[in-house]
Amino acid sequence: MERQVKLFHVFNHSVIDDLIRIFGQENVVQFANPNIVGIKYDYSTNKLSTIMSKIPFDEVQQFILTPSTLLELVRVASVFGFRPTISLDVELDDEEEKQLLEQAVSQLKQSPDNGLNILKKELTKLEEDYNAMPNAVVFRVNNERVTIQSNGILFASDNTLNVADNVLSYH
Predict the structure, then answer these.
(1) Are residues 72 and 61 in the same domain?
(2) Would you write out the chain's pLDDT as a tens digit for each of its 171 residues?
(3) Cα–Cα distance between 165 and 33 in angstroms, integer?
(4) 97 and 148 in one domain?
(5) d(CA 107, CA 102)
(6) Calpha distance 91→76 (Å, rounded)
(7) What is the DSSP string of 121-139?
(8) Whole domain around residue 164: which residue ranges?
């Protein structure tokens, strides 16, 4: 079952006990990177708006991923052997542009550093031509999709949450 997790940066690690008290142990996701914590949410009992109203923002802040951070996550997912894709905030009509973006991402597997430079150039061109910005990194683990969005929302199953943890923590 795919889970939705809102990610936060933790300033004070003692706040994790507070988060567990507020949201329950079953809803707090701790990552290998001790500065990242997640809160599971759904659309019935633990809504995102409820989480955001209860979060102690004096000790945590939303985990927001910049385009360069998303690119780094693409590189890391590629290094781990996954075939990541980048989701953009606009739909590209031009098939050639879509293919160029896919080719740039696939270059990462062959040569991570060179592939990352090619991908940066392609994304810069897409930004200039279409005002397109990356808004998510998507990859599959055993046919299950993992999505890490720029707004700090993670979509992963119980089976793939540890892989998402590895990618996020490597960053």
Answers:
(1) no
(2) 789 999 999 998 899 999 999 999 999 999 999 999 999 999 888 899 999 999 999 999 999 999 889 989 998 998 888 989 888 887 777 676 667 667 777 777 677 677 778 888 888 888 888 888 889 999 999 999 999 999 999 999 999 999 999 999 875
(3) 8
(4) no
(5) 9
(6) 25
(7) HHHHHHHHHH---EEEEEE
(8) 2-65+144-170
Please name the residue that has the structure tokens 């590189």.
Answer: 75
Contacts with 152 (C-beta within 8 Å, 6 or more apart), sequence order: 6, 7, 8, 62, 63, 64, 65
Residue 117 backbone phi and psi in degrees, to 5: -65, -45
Q: Which residue has the tokens 């707004």?
A: 151
Rounded CA-CA distance 129/121 in Å is 12
pTM for the model stands at 0.88
Are 60 and 92 contained in the same domain?
no
